[in-house]
Amino acid sequence: MSDKVRLGIIGLGAEGTMYADFLKEERVGNMEIGAICDILPEKKTAAEEYGVPFYEDYQEMITSGDVDAIVTTVPHYLHPEMGIYALDNGVHALVEKPVGVYTKQATELIEFAKSTPELKFGVFFNQRTNQLYKDIKAIMDSGELGKLRHTSWLITNWWRPQGYYNQSDWRATWGGEGGGVLVNQAPHQLDLWQWICGVPESVFAKAQYGFRRDIVVEDEVNALVSFADGATGTFITATHDMVGTDRLEILCDKGKIVVENSKDVTIWRLHEDEQVLSNDMDMDMVKKLFTGKVDLNDYMSTETKSYESVWGEQHCEVMRNFAAAVQGEEELLAPGGDGINGVRLANGIHLSSWTGQEVSLSDFDEETYLAELNKRIREEGKFEERN
Questions:
Q1: Amino acid 192: pLDDT
Q2: Which one of 118, 264, 351, 376 counts the least CB within 10 Å of its CB?
Q3: Which residues of 251-283 are buried (b: 16+ CB within 10 A; e: fewer)?
Q4: pLDDT at 309 (0 to 100)
């Protein structure tokens, strides 16, 4: 292998073009474009501008010998079959989020990847390269703040007007896209939330379908999850909020982390476990507390920090890390197997909202979910059912 991994880009839309431009600009030192594939023949002109071979069939590109790895910038349902075909033909696979639309589909790819351990299988979770979230994960993994008590993420700052949904027949459909905000805008946050706080055991959710948009999929979600040891969490998202909010809170036994706008972080570190401080506060101190005579800053320290990022650097870092893993130099920051967590949680939220019941995630009923999904695909009458 040369000193650069040759990447085959499947799908030269907005995302695929962005990755191609990053590589053309040599922003990823250990990776280059090997070939481009798109079902639209008119994209050949664009591919020629990058100076690489063009294919209309992704299978032909994968078996051409022009690429060492692929990235799947295509509709969500296609990610697993393309990933499997690449791995089955000796080509490394970097699959866009989500790894699959439903767990049965995602698991098929993940299980197949285990049969090709010599090949790298990653998922394009670029937010895992964000130094802000890497630092928060390090704090949580260290245990310095104690056990998780509660976490919430309110993320509504991706307003999508109706024209966005009207741009193509497959968008915002069950058969074409597999859902709304949960499978399109929110997968990065669903991944980060579980990457940092742990994988929840169950979920109870209320989702609104076509609430303020003329679509059949969800444009608003309110979900309550339960973690091990009694910890809980809430996840709220929507695409109809023009103002938008992005606020992540993580409350632990010995402190709290708050992130605003994925940029500004405040960390409170208690001098003792909160329960110890509570038990040591007698009634005289409680009276002083209620009358404003106790300064809680005496019981904790506060750290604030702001993070800046350069456009595209997170995407470039995912590609650089993936290429380094292919070359045997680094471990994957986002192994493909991790992608099942976000898919399972999104599926669980859907299923809970459809049934009105709390849904177990530790032994998720993927057959029931798939049956409910296919029911909605049949009602649309535009796409084939899934298996």
A1: 98
A2: 118
A3: bbbbbbbbbeebeebebbbbeeebeeeeeeeee
A4: 86
Q: SS3 letters for 256-291? A: EEEEECCCEEEEEEECCCHHHHHHCCCHHHHHHHHC
Spatial CA neighbour of 335 closest among 38, 104, 119: 119
Cα gap 210→377, rounded to integer Å: 15
pLDDT at 168: 87
CB 269 within 8 A of CB 146: no
pLDDT tens column, 36-54: 999 999 999 999 999 999 9
Q: Which residues touch 2 (CB under 8 Å, ≥6 apart)?
A: none
Q: What is the pLDDT of residues 101-146, one digit of tens each?
A: 999 999 999 999 999 999 999 999 999 999 999 999 999 999 999 9
Best CATH choice for the domain 130-308+341-380 from the list 3.50.50.60, 3.40.190.10, 3.30.360.10, 3.40.50.20 = 3.30.360.10
User: How far, in Å, CA of 320 to CA of 129, rounded?
Assistant: 11
Give the DSSP H/E element, type plus range, for residue 19: helix 14-24
Cα distance between the two ends of the chain: 38
Closest by CA to 333, choosing from 311, 348, 318, is: 318
Q: Which helix (H) or strand (E) holds 227?
A: none
